[in-house]
Each structure stands twice: as C-alpha cells, then as structure tokens.
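Appendix B. Extra example for self-study. Work through it before the problem class; the solution is given directly after the inputs so you can check yourself.
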Amino acid sequence: MKEQKEIRPPRWATHLLSWYCKPELLEDLQGDLNEYFERNVKSKGTRRAKLIYITDVFKFFRFYTVRKPEFVNLLINWIMIGSYIKTSGRNIVRNKLFSAINIVGLSISMSVGLLLIAVVSDILSYDKFNENHSRIYRVITKYKYLNENENTFASTSLRAAKVIEENFPPEAMAIFKDNWSADLKFSEKTIPLKGIWANESVFKVFSFRLLKGNPSTALKEPYSIVLTETSAKKLFGNNEALNKIVEWDKVQYTVKGIMEDVPQFSHVHFDMLASLSTEENLQKNDKDFSSWKNMWSTWVYLLLPANTDIKSLEDKLYKISVKENTTIQNTTLNLKLQPLDNIMLGLDHSNQIGGVMGNSMLWIFSGLAFVVILSACFNYTNLSIARSLRRTREVGIRKVIGALKSQVIYQFIVEAILISLTSLVMAIALFLLLRPFFLSVEESLKNTLLLQLSPAIVVYFVLFAIVIGIAAGFFPSLFFARVNVIQALKDFSSNKSFKKLTIRRALIVFQYCISIILVTSTVIIYKQYKHFVTFDLGFRTQNILNISLKGNKAELLRKELSELPEVKLISQSAMITSIGSYWGSNMKYTSPDDSAMVYHNTVDENYLPLHEHKLLAGRNFNTKVADSVMETEIIVNQSVLKRFNIANQNPAKAIGEIVKLDGKNVMIIGVMQDFQYGKVDSRAGANEVILRYAPKKTHWLNVKIESTDILAAYGKIELAWKRVDPVHAFDAKFYDDQIENSFAGIKASVKVAGFIAFLAISIASLGMLGMVVFTTETRLKEISIRKVLGASEMGLLFLLGKGFIILLLVATVIALPITYLFFDRILFQEIANHAPIAAIDLTVGFSLVSALALMMILLQALKATRTSPAEVLKNE
Amino acid sequence: MKGTNLGEFEELVLLTIAALLNEAYSVGICDELERQTKRSVKLGVVHAVLNRLEEKGLVKSKLGEATQTRGGKRKRYYSITSSGKAALVKSKEVRDQLWSMIPELSLKRI
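Solution. Structure tokens for the complete assembly:
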C-alpha cells in the first residue's frame, strides 16, 4: 500500500503545466490530470500512466489555456534593469578582491575562447570568395587495396573527370593536376614559381578574377599560362605581360592571362596556372597518364545546378566506379562528392591540394578552451555562492518588497553579464597580445589563418561574453532565487545555506583535476619530444648540413664547397632518412614467390663514413662504379638478411649473394647495422633498408662541417651556393634541425598544452585564493577566540588549511590515474619507441599545483592568525 | 453569431451538465458521456468545450472543496445558466418541430 501512495506524476511535467497555464484554469486542470493519472496507474501501470500524463500536459498547451505575457511585468523588468545595473556596479566595487578574481579569471579564459571563435570564423570563411561556393563539389576517391583498410583521398583520376563529363556533364568542371615548381625564363630573368596544370573551366567554377585575357579561352590552347599579378610583376616588372613568350624547361609558353592573386582564404594556392592540354600533349605516350588507377594528383571540382540531388549523383558515380574498377586489379576505387564548403573543416583526407586545418585539431583545441572557460565559470559560481551570506539580506528585502523569483534570477544574471562584459574588454586586449604567439605555434598556422578583428567578429565576441555571463550567473541566480525570506532577514549568522558545501567542493576538485591533468600531460609530451629528438638513430647527425640541390649538378657545388676549409666531407643522397620520408622498392631472393617491399636510399660512396653507419661485413661502394650505367651492388641491413633469411642471417656469409631488386640482379657487397630509417615515432616501422649507389640520381648534398663557428661556415656555404645557382633560394638545414622540425607537431602541442595548463592553474589558483580569503574572513572570530584560549599558530594553520589540502589530495587521486591511463592505454598505443612514463613525470604536476595552492593557503592563514584578537573581538 | 447556436457535442455536454446536477465536473462529465454515447471521449475536448460554453455564458462554474484525491486539487463544478437552459429548450423545440413534420408512414417505409 505504501508504495502505491508514492507514485506521482513526473515533476517536470507538472512544473511545465503550471508554467504555461493560466492561473484561473490551473488548479482544475491539474486536478483532472491527477485523477486520470491515478486511474491509469491502477489500470495501465505506472510507466504508461506517466507517459499519458506527459502527453496530456503537452496536449493541453492550447490557445485558451496559455497564459498571456503581462505587459506590466515586462515594463517592470525594463525599468528594473537600471536598478540591477546600479546595484551590480556597487557590488562589484564593494568587493574589489572578488570582482578582480572573477574578472581576471573570466578574461583569461575568454581570451582563449576568442581565439577559438576567430579561428573558426576564419576557417568558415575559406573558399567563400567563390560566388557559387555552395554549388561546387570536389570529386574524392575512396581507395581500397585488397582487404586493407579503406582510405579516402582528396584527389581523383583524369579518367574519372572524363567519364563524368561524358555521362552527366555538370554545369562546369574544373581540373587541377600536379603541384609543381617551375623556373620561368623571360629574356635574361629566371624566377621559380609554384604552379598547377588547369583546364579552361577553372575560371568558370572558381571566382578567380582575370585582370587581362579572356577567362573562357586563356587556358584552352596547349602551351598557354596564366600568371598571378604578383608573379607577373616579378617577371616583367611594370611592362606588359600579356601575350609574351616565356621559356620553361626549353619549351615556350604564351602568357594568355593575368589574374588577381589567389585570395588568402582559398584552399588552392599557386603563382601560375598552365593549360592542362599542354601536359596532355607532353604525356601523350604515357598510357598510365589518363588511367583510372592514376588517382594521386588530379583534383576535380564540379559546379552543379542549385537543386541537384547529391545522393542520386553519388549513386551514379558509384555505378561508374564499379564499371571502371573492372579495368584494374586488386584495387577498388569509389568516387564520392565533397562540398567545397566542407574542405577546410572536413575529415582529414590524404593527398590534399593545399594545406587544410583538419577537424581533429580543432576539436582538441575547442575541448581545451571549453574546459578552461568552464573552470572560470566555476570560480564565479563558487565565489558568488560563498559570498551569498552577504547578499541574502538584499535578496530578502527585495522579495519582501515584492520581487518575483524570476526577477531575482534576472538580477543576478544581469550582474554576471555585466562582469563578463567587463572581462571582455580585457579579454580582447589579451587576444591581441596572444595572437602573434598563437600563429607562431606552428608554421602552417601563419599561412592558413589571419585572425583579424572584423566588426562581425566583435559582434560574435559580445554574444560570446553574454553567453558566458549567463552560464556563470545561472547557478548563483537559482541559488539566490530560492532564498527563504524569513530566514534571510531573521538572523544571518545561522544561515543554513552556507552549509551546502558539497557542490562547491566538487567544483574545486574539478578545477584542480583539470590543472593537474594538463600540467602532467605537458610534462609527459615534452619528455616524449626530447626523447624523440635525441633518439639514438644508429648513425650520427651532428654538424651535418643537408643542402637541397634544386636540380643543380652536384659536382659543381661539390667543387665550390670542397674549397672551404670548414667542410670536412661531402656526400650525396636521394633523400634524408629519419624525418618521415619513405622510398620503397621491390626485392626477391631465391624463392620466386617471396617478394617484399624494402626501403631504400640512393647514395654515393661517402655517405656511409660521413654518417658513421656501422658496416658489419663487406665493404663500402667503390668510386669507380660511378661511370657504369648498370646497378650491380647494394648494401643491406641486418633486417633484410632476417626477412629473406639470407645466409642464415650471418652477415659475413651474406656478402656476394645475389638478390633481385625491382627485377634486376644485384649483389650484396656489404651488411650494415640496423638503423632508424623512418620517423622514430612511426609504428609502421621501416626495418628492411638497403642502400643503392647512383650519385647521378641524388637530390641532397650532405656536408659535414668541422668548425668552431658553425654560423660563419653556414654563411660561406650560402655564398658558394649563390655562385653556383643565383636563381633558387639556398635551402639547407642542419640534420638535427630537420629531425626537430619533423616533430614540430609534438612541439606545437607542448606549447599549446603548456599554455592551457598555465591558464588552468591561474584560474584554479584565483578561485582557491578567493575561497581561502573568504573562509579565513568568516572564521576570523573563531580564530581569535581560539587564540585567546591558547591555540598554537601551527594548530591554527592546520585547522584552516586542512579542508583545502584534502580537496587537493582528492583531485590528485582522480587526476593522475586518468592521465596515466590516457597516455599509456590510448595515446601511446599509436606511437612507437615512446619513452616510458616515469613516476617523476606524474609528480611534477601535482607538486607544482599543490605548492601554489599551499602557498596561498599559508599566506592567508598566517595573515588571519597574526591579527590581534583584541581588534577582532572588541566589536562584539 | 457562433455564440447563439449549439454544436452537437456542445449540446451533449450541456445536457450532461444538466443531468448530473451537482456532480458536474470535467472528469465526471467525461465519464458520463462515455457511458451514454458508448464512444471514447477525450478530456481535452471536453475541457475545451466547457471553456467555450462558459465564455458563451451558457454555464457557470465554481470551485468545490479540496479532497484527498486528485493530489489535493479542488474540482470545478459546472451548472447550467438560464441562457443555457434557453438554448437547450430551443434546440429541443427545433427538433420536436422537425420530428412532428415527418409523417409516420414515410418513416416506416425506410
């Protein structure tokens, strides 16, 4: 029986009903619904009854039941805003410390939010310069090799473009092919330009403005190019550029158009366009050129009519893909469409035509910003409720005079918004201060984002501040709205509301958890970065300068450089190992079925000694082979012996063995120790490595420098470069720097995580300061009496600090395991060769955060215990 | 003009109120209608009709005493006003008149 009595209709539905219903109809209606509810509980069961009750509440939302907004109330609210602002202002001024804590905390966290808003708005404005941006779609390709995982590529094949054109021609179709760099020559001048092959419809699909020339024909004929304004100025100065003949790779091209520079917010960037028909002419004999499988460097954009059904178009594309897939083996390709507006923010496809933001990074950044903002809002909530003691009287009197609950809520939210708007001013200043640092966190950011303060952005900022104000003021306002008038006015020393500490404790624990997690993560990531950068690769990289040859003859530069006394040794290589480049070739040993991919680098005879690779058996390459055309010798590493089980993995016996490399027989002349060929953190370990000998096919010069003044030596080498090649900029980096650069992503995340951790700690500390000040102030009398009765200073310190220290410990106990598990179980699963997490890494964050907190507690507590009891107690 | 004429359902509700005497409140009317017409009657509809009848001045209502049931909410009892009575009488007269015009023979033939 007892249980039956407790069944009640859902409370929120009852509240909803009483909120919207006219007061004169309410009681009867509630009664009716209750009567039905009781009946339904008996006949249909509790769950059905509740459901019926809820639907009935919604059903009764009718014209005749709904309460009309009362004009008088609106008017009163309007008049009261002035009063709210006045009292809020007075309150802010009266509690300078608390207001300062709130404003500083909010503005710090808001500056991060502002950065985020600016970033998002920049990214959303990408490609919007195109008039028809909402109707442009990119053809992307899903690539699947046998049963491996499917990959999505932003590129597609020329064949795909052709098939689409034949089967269902779109309004216009733009094709870009290959990203290259070209040395354009006009009379005596040569400048390197970044260019793309493009068809004539590029100007129809995209809104690139052509200043001179005819947009519909400029890129039609073979051997025609379109220059951007800037590159035309570079090549021709102020002279007329149109219809001039320029030379590139001994072929002559006509300048058929000059276009405005590509807008900053475009995902495609280039200095020049050359007609696609040229490339079609040049590659006429290459069967692979327009094959279905060659989908690596063609980007196709369709301009579709406004009401196109994308789904059915994709179905048609699927049918085409199925048909075309019959012409290739082992691979399935599937064409899809991606809206242009989605490219910058969309999924991280491979083979992008230009840099994209990728949404994963944005999500992480948003998450961190959200946590920091939440933390600052908690400060506000915490301090407001803590200080409620002093505000309850005001609220009590307001209520006695006739303030409604809603009006009290309104008042406190207005106050919070006022504070958040004040913070906004500081936050914008901080934002301007942070902007250059943020953009330099990673190199690519500078090219993709501007973060300008436009009027629209400022409007977003203000809206953001108002939302933050509402979020921060929401809980305190509810709290004050519930204040019991009689209790508030009777005697506030026995105020019960102050004892509701759990929520405030939870908020403090949350803030400290976040701080500890962020600090610990920063420490761990930084340690990984150091670990990767100083990793023992199996060869030496110190003082080696890698110079990109840029198509120059190696001998010329070598001759110039060898005259410098600082240069100790020079070698050549096709690529630089350990920084994330991979070159593969196919290898077979005795068994004809067992072929495997091995990674290779093509080098000269100085490469091994210069990098101090260890030869286990055999010899280095001989110089004399340089002249012969046939490749006959290779050096392999131990893993190759292991993979093919050559000579029972005995290096000495493997010398002289013949293997098949890309179909040709070559002899193993040396076996070297395994070294790190791929990037250190890459899980796809490139273990089997061979070195091939072909000085003619190299792209890099590795220069070992021995000098006390490395910078001066670098300057001399640069001068030597200028003598050999005046056209191209000197592109050389020290090997160690290249390795560091290859981990720029990790470095950037250390910076961002460190910065956010710093903010989180500042905000948590501010909040802690506020709480400590408040507690000591309210307990001043208690402390004085204890002192009079003979309490020791140490005892008092312990008494005041105890509660906070427990909270800190709880936060630590929650935060450290979370951090450890996150790195150990989730993040490190993806990363090879990571450094283990040491106990010391975990304690750094904790000690830092608690040292700060303890210092604050100690200072405030000392201040309280040092006050003379006579001063405090004489008023009573 | 709508105010002067009774709809079919309005008339039924009005008649029920008259018939139930002192027990005419929303849920009671609803139950009685269900019993008499043998069809399901939705509370929402009855509620809307009661509201409309009161607006037209055909019924008047007052709140009853609070009881243990209904979650302690009071019932709103409806009673018929004189204009309500007039409207009922008038619609009955119209019907009677029409009935009287039908010769008995022609009805039997159907």
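Self-check: The interface with chain B takes residues 8, 25, 27-32, 34-36, 38, 56, 59-60, 62, 64 of chain A (CB under 8 Å). If your reasoning did not lead you there, revisit section 3.
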